[in-house]
Amino acid sequence: MTAAYPLPQVVEPPTCCGDEREGSACHTDALEGATVDTADALFKGFADPTRIRILNVLAAGELCVCDIVELLDVAQPAVSRHLAYLRRTGLVRATRDGKFAHYQLAPARDAVHQSLMACVVSCFRGIPSLDGERAAALRRVAERRTTPC
Fold it and tell me: How much is the pTM?
């Protein structure tokens, strides 16, 4: 059974003037900054199975490093190393709350980034291990609303 995953805000199209023509003023701004180098950096973020798994669980919402470690059953130093890489590529962002670091998918910077974030939400469905991790992450995100780290 495939769970219905909510789309994170990062893949929502930008609010604009309603002019859907490519190159219109509001759409030009959304595409600004997309280069081969930025696309390359984003794709490198997807070039590791652990990073794919991390992106997959973060599609459920904001998670603490300790949650990611538990959900993926990966050692904390490895998770932290991959999260640092994902931060450098701009795929995730971090906030600190005391000694805890919380991560979430980063808002899309350009059209390529937006497409890749949409893929995180939809393309990983149907892979049983990723589906199970995402379902567990959705439960953890809901738990964290009432019981933070």
Answer: 0.76
